[in-house]
C-alpha cells in the first residue's frame, strides 16, 4: 500500500483514497493524512456499508467529508463481497455544518468515478478464476491511485475539471447543432430558390418553345405558298413558250 504525507497537511484537501473488497480487504490505498484521522474515518464508514445495491453516499465529520461508491454486483465471481471506492477530504462547507459547497460532492464523486474507471479497465478484467484480493499490494494500482489523488488535490486532475469539460462539450454540441440547423435552413432556402428558378426557367422555356413553334409553322406555310406559286409560275412559263405569251392565244385557238 502507498502512504505519504507530502507538504503541509493544512494545505492538503484530498487526504485518503482506497479501493476495498467487502468491508476490510483493502486492495489499494493512499494516505496523505499524517494524523491518521482520515483513514480511521474511512474504516468507521466501511463498517456501516451494506452491499445491497449500488450507492453513492457522503458524510460530514468535523473538518472531514467522506464519500464512497459501493458496487455489490462488480464481477460477483471475483468480488463476491462487493467493492467500495472511498475518498476522505478536508471538509469545505458553506458555513453550515450540514451542507457542502457547490463542488463539495461533485468533485470527490468525479474522482471516485475516475478511480473506478481505471480499476475496472486496467485491473478488474485481469482477475480470471481468482479473487480481487489477489490485487492487494499491486505497485501499479497503488501508483495509479496515488497519482490520481495527488492530481485531484492540486486541481490538475481531469476529474476536477470533468464537469466543466462536459458543460463545454454540451455547449459545443449545441452550437454545432444550431449551426447544422442554420446550414440546413440555408440549404433548404437555396434548394427552394433553385426550384423557383427552375420553375421560372421551365415556364420561360415553354413560352419560347411555343413562340418558336408558331414561327416555324408560319415559315412552313409561307414556304409552301411560295413553292405552290413558283410551280404555277413555271407551268405558266412553260405553257407560254408553247402557246405564246401573254394570253396563250395559240393554244386557246
UniProtKB/TrEMBL annotation:
UniProtKB keywords: Coiled coil, Membrane, Protein transport, Transmembrane, Transmembrane helix, Transport
Main location: membrane
Pfam family, one: Synaptobrevin
Membrane-spanning segments: 223-248
GO biological process, one term: protein transport
KW Transport (keyword) present: yes
Highest rank taxon of the organism: Eukaryota
Membrane topology (UniProt): Single-pass type IV membrane protein
Compartments, as annotated in UniProt: Endomembrane system
InterPro entries, A to Z: Longin-like_dom_sf, Longin_dom, Synaptobrevin-like, Synaptobrevin-like_transport, V_SNARE_CC
GO CC terms, sorted: cytoplasm; endomembrane system; membrane
Family: Belongs to the synaptobrevin family.
Protein name: Synaptobrevin homolog YKT6
Species name: Geotrichum candidum
